[in-house]
User: Fold Voltage-gated chloride channel protein from Streptococcus panodentis.
Amino acid sequence: MKKIKAYPLLAVLAVVIGGIVGMVDTVFGRVLLYLSDFRGEHIIFLLPILPFAGLLIDFLYQRCGGSSRKGMTLVFAVGHGEEDEIPKRLIPLIIVSTWLTHLFGGSAGREGVAVQLGAAVSNWFSSRFRIKDVSKIFLITGMSAGFAGLFQTPLAAAFFAMEVLVVGRLELSAFLPAVIAALTASWTSHTLVLEKFTFPLEQRVDWSIGNILKLLLLGLLFGLAGKAFALALSWAKKKAALRFKNPYIRILMLGLLLTGLLLFLDRGRYAGLGTNLISASLHQGRIYPYDWLLKLALTVLTLAAGYQGGEVTPLFAIGASLGTVLAPLMGFPLAFTAALGYAAVFGSATSTLLGPILIGCEVFGFAYLPYFSLVCLTAFVLKHDRSIYGAQKVMDYQNMTLHFPKF
Assistant:
């Protein structure tokens, strides 16, 4: 009852949070796109600086980070009630460190920044408006705004934020403020001319028994790719921390290895977000059978070294390029299968379902909802307790308890 009475205030604050986060997302996103373009034009000169940029990133976090160094783990800890505060310093730290990662060629994403800064903003509002039992709602509201402001997919953002904290549980109590904040952030960043990615599909696949079986097989393969990414990331982070206990040595040595690999493998083809692979997959450009695997491995190496960014856009690239490879084997159109991989690999790696289905619809068209639903559901049920988020919890319906994912 107290939550219901607080909803009018939460709705108003959701507009404010969405507006603020949308503006910050716009600044972050537009600068990131400029830096990515600049890196593409000067890749040979910038990539060798990547290890030293890593030292600067680690210095900033060691000197100024405090609990901000936990990143998404801190966001999940606040969502689970294990921590109370996300320090405001997290916002400039994660933004600057991600800009440095991308300027010098690290293979990473950007959603981690958006979700963390959204969570930090909403956490600040939660500390100022002390409404009992709604701190998690504030957090989900901010996460939703952060994701929506960057990708301009408000429905996917809201449902992703509501389902990502605990696998198998949807925080419907946060539905209204999460959707309001997502719509506001998305409108704000769009109004401020932050680039939005859409690709309306034009191909259809008949719902024959044979095609349904092929779609189920695609879901299985995309699910395996997403779980492979999650397991590889967890393993690589643990091994890197054991092998190089000093974080400066770790990021320097792995940064040197990363630089050599990125230069050797087609002169930076796998650097940055991976939007080049997404574009090639959807526009019938040059995609090699091993593109998805190399993007997976280099993204894992980048994040295990300690560079900042996120995983989602590389997951989009991995899924799209894998879909392009599988399309001829299934007899499906290239762009259609790439779009399914784009959504399903993301869903499998994050152990989420509704967000990936909706992001597929918002990017590629709601007419394809049945296809995204079938493939993403198949990918989701495949060992859904393995995730890129180590602090994510899983609902145990048999015992009605929560436990952490297995790795």
